[in-house]
Amino acid sequence: MRAVCITVILSLVFCFSITPARAGEEAKSDLEVLESGKGKEYDLKLDFTPGRTRTVVITRNLSGSRRNVPHVVEKKTHMTQTVEADNAGGYRVTRTFERLIQKVNYNTVTIVDCDTARKGEPLDEIGIILSGLPGKSLILCFDNSLELTEIKGKEEAYNGMVDALKKKVGDKGTAADFEGARKKLEQSFHLDDFLEDLVKTETIIPGRKFAVGAKWRQPYTISFPDFTDIEASLTTEFMEVKGNVAVLRQTMQVPDNASATYQTLMEMSVALLNGSNTVCFDLEKKELKAFTRELHLEFSGTAPGGQKLVMKRNTKEIFEYGEKPGKKPGETQAPEPAPEDREQPEKKPEKKSSKSGEKQKPSGAKPENPDTEPESTPRKPR
User: Domain range holding 282?
Assistant: First the structure.
């Protein structure tokens, strides 16, 4: 396996992402109120509860085309989040990778199909690299005003992926090969994508009180690998309150003359076909319950050789959260087993009729034929 092959696959798989400006860049918190809303005001500000443990599942479905060749990327990442208070009144939020699933189709051909929870060794290069992430943690440090001050663990996460590659390749790879793979990972596998809901909270939750019906607008930056940043704006409307959950609807706006430079080679015009977010915020626990983004962009321009070039980028991202009761902060959680690896319920002895020897079945029971059940679907206990 050569480094050049790995580099090409990494470029295709990991460069297909959409996210606001990266952590460490200056936050644009300017917020313009368009409508104030009516009635009771609700505090839309994120907070942390020390000792809480949550599950975080991030799903990304990405599609598009490059030089008229279609790509489809499906990703799902399972993480565990714990919160600890520090001595200065701040918080340490730790997100630990548990399981990563990824599938890539290039021109209708599946080139990547991996799940780090499967038993045995992953079959492709991306699976090998991703197998180095489960158990690794990213730690976000917040001060007592909930400002993000530092992100730890990135170096260890990248080292884990490269070490997994070294273990598989062995003597077939050189130090230069692994260094090249490491650089490509740092350029295209953005760990901030797994922390976006915490790193860029000011574009999701306003951090102040609003009534239902309120609208506000703020600057927004869309970042793509291979492209310069696209300056846009985000308009949020406070739609309703369901129980203890506030529902916000967000729409993106890109200027008519928006453009971005592709790989320093050419300037391309940008058309926003659709861009929207849906935010569900728990007013009692002061935390996100769900966050969904859909974005459809089209880039068009003329290559240096005069060739017309059109690229499309479509994505849907979903952050889902759950509870993990009875787990202490810092404990590791075994990943959810792949469907084919789950234990099947033990079969009970079948009773036979004393007269005919036929199997007795409950009244109204349907005949069972386990051979017709898909292997990936666990059988229900009888």
Answer: 3-326
Task: Report the chain's C-alpha Rg in angstroms.
Answer: 24
Give, in degrees to the nearest 5, the angle at Cα 103 between 224 and 72.
50
**Residue 163 near residue 155, CB atoms below 8 Å:** no
**DSSP-assigned beta bridge partners for residue 272:** 297
Helix 154-169 and helix 175-188, axial crossing angle in degrees, nearest 10: 140
Handedness of CA 371, 372, 377, 378 (dihedral sign): negative
Residue 60 makes CB contacts below 8 A (sequence gap 6+) with: 17, 73, 74, 75, 76, 315, 316, 317, 318
Cβ-contact 299, 283 below 8 angstroms: no
In a domain, 44, yes or no: yes
What pLDDT, on a 0 to 100 scale, did the predictor assign at position 121?
61
142-186 pLDDT, tens digit each: 998 889 999 999 999 999 999 998 888 877 778 888 888 888 888
- Distance between CA atoms of residues 120 and 123, nearest Å: 9
User: pTM, whole model, 2 decimals?
Assistant: 0.76
Distance CA 135, CA 334 (A): 9
Strands (E), 39-160: 41-44, 53-66, 69-85, 91-106, 109-115, 137-142, 148-152
In order of 50, 347, 351, 358, 368, the CA distances from 361 in angstroms are 52, 15, 9, 9, 10
Number of domains in the chain: 1
Q: Is residue 241 one of the residues assigned to a domain?
A: yes
Residue 120 lies in a domain: yes
